[in-house]
Amino acid sequence: MSAMGGAGADLARMRSLTAELNRHIYAYHVQDAPTIPDAEYDRMFVELQALEAVHPEAISNDSPTFRVGAAPIPEFKQVTHTVPMLSLNNAFAPEDVDNFDRRARESLGAARIAYASDLKFDGLAISLRFEDGVFVRAATRGDGSTGEDVTANIRTVRAIPLRLHGDQPPSVLEVRGEVLMFKADFAKLNARQRAAGQKEFANPRNAAAGSLRQLDSRITAGRSLRFFSYGVGALEGAAMPESHSALLEWFGALGLPVSGECKVVQGVDGLLDYYAGVGKRRPGLPYEIDGVVYKVDRFEDQQRLGFVSRAPRFALAHKFPAEEALTVVQEIEVQVGRTGAITPVARLVPVSVGGVTVTNATLHNEDEVRRKDIRIGDTVIVRRAGDVIPEVVGCVLERRPADAREFVMPTACPVCGSPIVRAEDEAVARCAGGWTVCGAQKKGALMHFVSRRALDVEGLGDSLIEQLVDKGLVDNAADLYTKLDLATLAGLERMGEKSAKNKLDALEKSKQTTLARFIYGLGIRHVGESTAKALAQHFGNIDALVHGATWEGGLQLLEVPDVGPVVARSLGQFFADPASLALVGQLRAAGMTWKEGAHALKNAGALAGKTFVLTGTLPTLGRDEAAAMLEAAGAKVSGSVSKKTSYVVAGADAGSKLAKAQELGISLLDEEGLLALLNSTTGGSAAPTTKEAPSAKN
């Protein structure tokens, strides 16, 4: 290709990228309805920047590299920012951070630089103006120079003070920060949206943006928005702090919310350590973040470094690997779950999402496929969060090929050939074969039975279960105890004699269990851990449960906590099946035993009415083990601290739960105190004690 031809291709690509990026900017910033993942936008943006660097004479006036957001929507009054609200350059790899640090050191002539490192919140950037300490106006970023006046809506955000703290506030203070919605509040909002038959929000960022852009501020007031401040636009009538970290401390004194996550680190090693540490804690944070932000800490140094184009030279956003990405649906197949549930699964062109290569993603059920209009051949957005199974969020309609095919739900199970049926009151279709007929359900039932929270058979993983079923060695859970021997196991793939013996020892150990674990391990539909515990405590033994769950006696199930008509019906169906009753009998005959529920324990009910909260790491007890001991004594184990909490059991690295318990004056126990309290309920000599627990972790 000639040089002229290459330049022509570059210019055509620049025009194409500019048009597509501007469409996505409008969808994201104005309509609050993103059409592609952030990572895909960033990739195209970087590509356009590189082409513009080669052909600066061809940069169009509407290039997104000239702007930070999008024009304000016309329904809101426009506000011109006193100081423009700029964006940040992005880093995606350690070498990007190293180059940022090197350029800063060379410009400042410094051997090492102190950086203020903080979280990059996934929310909506806002500027708040205070005059003589009183809140007077709020504006969105908009295009960086002009934003939307959202004062009435911001007044409904309770975290934002309407008057600053202190006797001598600055005459003018413009605070820059982020409005966001916490994960728990987002889940509650979407639950309300579903109940009202309204469209759900795609993510907390869009929920926050949509809530803040309501023309009726009463709607905003009904949604839980939060705010974190992290910068200053204009300041008059007060001295500017010397550093960014000092600024955040001053904000806190003024009553402005700050995240508390800012940390001053030294050099590039400190930056990368901070990034890695936040990455590990990211899933547990109460809000969404998509990276961290580095700023040269001293404001004098920031001024010397200055700005370039649309971003400051003294700051950098270091993004986490994408948790959303674009890829293509190659096929849609169905998987058969433990309870026979038929789940459509998209087979994808491999794509990296959150640092993990994804080839499959769930489509949940047939209704979801139709609602999202996902077709074979579509370009789709795939999302992954932590260890959650990747899912297809939606498709990019503008990229749909002409030969895209609609998904057709099969009428027969792909594993056993049984009919696929769907109850009138359910969204999920199921294989009618059941676990005695369908190999997929059989494998799922066995995997559930040996799982950690059920019978906890160490070393019996999914691949081994698949081998045992495929080779016809086991048909049900009882066969694990009666049909396997050392020679049989040692003859399997990747299995030696020592490993086989370990598996047999684990099976033997699992025979000594609890009634609650046994009930949960049976894999009865709708019976989770808490329901299994409630059933064990109420009935006390398996025979009483079987009788109580028959159609004739099923009504008494409604007296059990956590058991409603749906669970009662499911229990009745399970124990009305001769194969299920036979399995229970075979397991007991194989030697499986347990203490017959709370009714048979000496300390049963001794702690009834008491609520415990476990936090931190105990020296010898696992949290599940400690919870089981408390529940066997009749106590309730809760996940949150309130005035109704009786005791908080705190171990090492206890966090906010311990701090709240101390604030409320709730009795604290360490492991020794917990064991003493449990011993006292059985008539032992040890008296319950409360001791000083570890201090709350910052």
UniProtKB/TrEMBL annotation:
Gene symbol of the encoding locus: ligA
Top-level class of the enzyme under EC nomenclature: ligase
Amino-acid positions noted as binding Zn(2+) in the UniProt annotation, renumbered to this chain: C413, C416, C438
EC number(s) given by UniProt: 6.5.1.2
Catalytic reaction equation(s): NAD(+) + (deoxyribonucleotide)n-3'-hydroxyl + 5'-phospho-(deoxyribonucleotide)m = (deoxyribonucleotide)n+m + AMP + beta-nicotinamide D-nucleotide
Protein's recorded name: DNA ligase
One MF term in the entry's GO annotations: DNA binding
Active-site residues annotated for this sequence: K120 (n6-amp-lysine intermediate)
UniProt-listed Pfam families: BRCT, DNA_ligase_aden, DNA_ligase_ZBD, HHH_2, HHH_5, OB_DNA_ligase
Entry GO CC: cytosol
